[in-house]
Design brief:
about 15% strand, alpha+beta
Length: about 575
């Protein structure tokens, strides 16, 4: 049985000639607000072996897997990088924030930890890579009740490659780790004190990274590591369907015969700002824009897989959104991407989104029905309605969860991950027997090719909305509005993908389309809520229970759907003012 611990820490190293830490040097920390004393916990010997695939892609993504003996937490540890909301960055790049999943000590990699690495390792063998031995001296900052607020450790480290007979590399470092539920501001105060003792932020964020560098073995990064780490952080604090801030309407550009295409140099801000490498001074192409969108969503799927397996709140939803975004890009940009290469990938993404959606759809519907019941006055709640809802939700969740894990552990998903990994290469690789992913139009400037794709999706949405609103209220109209919702989502994702090439006009259009998607999504949720309420009412009636409250909820959902339909024309009119062709 594994368990998870949130780890927030900072690393330091001593300036040349600096004095070693001791209790006397740290005693002043007892004067910090909330700190009652500094406790010396003595010295511990730690012996760790780090496991990786041959291409070291776990290390490239900031993931560590180790087997460690010694200390109170000996066992297997898998560390996944994450930065939750509310945890500030330090001026030199940030606290190291990781979820550490621990499993009991054993000889082989625990299957539950290996599963959490699958989206990155693609089931490649995990073998010993680095051996670390650490002599650790620990001091705890505790409050008046003796509860730990933070821990400071001075480590004397020796490292060597697994199986190497050569002399190990050695170094010393200091770690300051926040206690569970502690205030990150405490680390700032600790850092200020450590700086007076001659300590400075370490040049490496982990012992493994330093060991890899100082043992001088070749380090292979087969995927864009920088972006994968950024997607891991996005996964922690949200990048799903959150409402965007709408920028001010861009000024009307000056007339010119031919607009100059945007430059890669303007867009490539920071390492790997545009995934896939290439010449940062060359003109941006339509292929650059589309492949950047593809690779970002692949990175999101890979990063969110462990969180979805661990049932981290909203992780399944975010992974599903990334899957849908990627499929949408593959379908919308067919002038850039060869259909023979892209369509089979899109079909598998549709399957994955369906597997991810089973539990997510139940979760959303359960929240909606529960909120609706909470709004019903006590005197109108007749019969065991809440118990009925709970039984339905729990039964659905158990089945959906088992189905999802079986899918993520299965060969079909592994085959899809392997295909997606090939798309992250530069140039992207495709399966044997299929053509290259990029078509000739990929070499053209994005202004014409990418803009045309976004406008085509917007026009498609307009046709579906017109057809749906022309129908009388009823099941046929509900189905047509659901189809329009899918078109709105596809148009929004196409606009989001185009931002690199088309600028803030694409971002603003995506925000407007999101509002249309939200209205249509709420309408569809009401349709599904009514279907579920009717099914529950049939069971309740058969058991001799009152169905009055269920009928009341059904009527409220009907009214909510009608309100969304009345709201839709106004929301759509906002998308057309100014017209997308002028906005882009």
């Amino acid at each position: 049985m594994s368990r998870t611990v949130r780890e927030i820490e900072r690393k330091y190293e001593a300036a040349p000639g600096g004095a070693p830490l001791d209790l006397a040097a740290l005693s002043a920390l007892a004067e910090l607000p909330g700190v009652a004393s500094v406790v010396d916990d003595g010295v511990t010997a730690l012996d760790a072996t780090y496991y990786y695939t041959a291409d070291q892609r776990l290390a490239a993504d900031g993931v560590t897997l180790r087997r460690r003996t010694g200390g109170s937490d000996e066992g297997w540890h898998l560390k996944l990088p994450v930065r939750p909301k509310g945890v500030p960055r330090t001026s030199d790049g940030g606290d190291v924030v990781r979820d550490e999943i621990r499993a009991p000590l054993g000889d082989a990699v625990p299957p539950e930890l290996a599963a959490l690495t699958r989206s990155r390792t693609l089931d490649a063998p995990l073998r010993p890579l680095v051996e670390l031995r650490t002599r650790r001296t620990v001091w705890r900052l505790v409050d008046a009740a003796g509860e730990p607020l933070a821990e400071i450790s001075a480590d004397e480290v020796s490292a060597r490659r697994a199986g190497s007979a050569g002399a190990p590399v050695r170094w010393s470092e200091v770690e300051a780790e926040l206690g569970a539920g502690g205030d990150p501001a405490l680390l700032d105060a600790v850092e200020r004190h450590l700086s007076t003792l001659g300590l400075r932020p370490a040049g490496s964020t982990s012992k493994l990274a330093r060991a890899l560098a100082e043992t001088a073995a070749p380090h292979v990064e087969s995927v864009p590591a920088t972006e994968a780490r950024r997607e891991e952080r996005r996964a922690a604090h949200g990048d799903g369907d959150d409402t965007r801030k709408k920028p001010k309407e861009p000024k009307k550009p000056k007339k010119q015969k031919k607009p100059a295409p945007p430059k890669k140099a303007r867009r490539r801000e920071g390492a790997d700002a545009l995934l896939g490498g290439g010449d940062p001074t060359a003109e941006l192409t339509a292929g650059d824009v589309v492949l950047d969108a593809v690779r970002r969503q692949v990175a999101a799927i890979v990063a969110l897989d462990p969180a979805a397996r661990r049932e981290v709140p909203d992780a399944v939803h975010r992974m599903r959104v990334a899957t849908r975004r990627l499929r949408s890009v593959l379908r919308s940009y067919r002038k850039v991407l060869d259909r023979a290469a892209a369509d089979p990938v899109g079909a598998e993404l549709k399957w994955l989104a369906g597997e991810l959606g089973v539990d997510r759809d139940r979760e959303v519907l359960a929240e909606r029905l529960t909120a609706g019941l909470d709004a019903v006055p006590d005197e109108q709640r007749l019969g065991p309605v809440r118990a009925r809802l709970t039984i339905w939700a729990q039964a659905e969740h158990a089945d959906a969860r088992q189905r999802l894990i079986a899918a993520l552990d299965g060969p079909r998903y592994l085959d899809l991950l392997t295909t997606l990994d090939a798309l992250r290469a530069d140039p992207p690789r495709t399966r044997e027997g299929t053509p290259p992913l990029l078509r000739p139009a990929a070499a053209k400037p994005p202004r014409k090719v990418v803009r045309a794709a976004v406008l085509a999706e917007t026009d498609r949405l307009a046709r579906r909305l017109d057809a749906a609103l022309a129908l009388p209220p009823g099941p046929e109209r509900d189905g047509a509005l659901h189809a329009a919702r899918k078109a709105a989502k596809r148009a929004r994702y196409a606009a989001e993908a185009a931002e690199l090439g088309l600028g803030k006009g694409a971002r603003e259009l995506a925000g407007r389309l999101q509002r249309v998607q939200q209205v249509l999504g709420d309408h569809q949720d009401s349709v599904r809520a009514r279907e579920t309420l009717r099914d529950i009412a049939v069971r309740a009636h058969a058991a001799g229970e009152s169905t009055f409250t269920l009928g009341l909820l059904y009527g409220r959902e009907e009214a909510a759907a009608a309100a969304r339909e009345r709201e839709l024309p106004e929301v759509w009119a906002a998308v057309l003012d100014p017209p997308p062709r002028r906005l882009l």
